[in-house]
Amino acid sequence: MLPINSKFSSAITKLSGNPFTGAIRVTFTSSPKEYLMQARRREILAAALMPPVSVGQWVNRHCWAI
């Protein structure tokens, strides 16, 4: 899993993704539970190399629940 920088996000505590399987692990600030989601592999790699300005918006646009 590649860590995706989420230190400036008020909605997400931890975000990491695997560009080989398309899996995303998200931990929201409102819940201690870790959620497993899917995203396109190229989007995960792009977010890991150049973190998005708004990580919450990135999750809303690119991730879907398994």
Quick overview of this protein structure:
The chain is α+β, with helices and mostly antiparallel strands. It has helices spanning 41-49, 55-62; strands at 2-3, 12-18, 23-28, 34-38, 64-65.
What is the element string, with H for helices and E for strands?
EEEEHHE
Note the main sheet.
Answer: 5 strands, antiparallel
Alpha-beta content class: alpha+beta
Mean pLDDT: 93
Strand order of the largest sheet: 1-2-3-4-5
Distance between the termini: 17 Å
Q: Hey, roughly how much beta strand do the residues contain?
A: 25-35%
The number of distinct helices, counting runs of at least 4 residues, comes to 2
Q: Any idea how many domains?
A: 1
Round the Cα radius of gyration to an integer and report it.
Answer: 10 Å
Outline, from the CA principal axes? globular
**Poorly predicted residue ranges:** none
Report the strand count: 5
Helix content: 25-40%
What does this structure look like?
- The chain is of the alpha+beta class.
- The chain has one domain.
- The protein is 26% helix and 33% strand.
- It is built from 2 helices and 5 strands.
- Strands 1-2-3-4-5 form a 5-stranded antiparallel sheet, covered by helices on one side.
- Strand 3 and strand 4 form a beta hairpin.
- It is globular.
- The chain starts with a strand and ends with a strand.
- The relative contact order is 0.26.
- The model has no long low-confidence stretch (mean pLDDT 93).
Secondary structure: elements and pairs:
Elements: E1 2-3, E2 12-18, E3 23-28, E4 34-38, H1 41-49, H2 55-62, E5 64-65
Antiparallel strand pairs: 1-2, 2-3, 3-4, 4-5
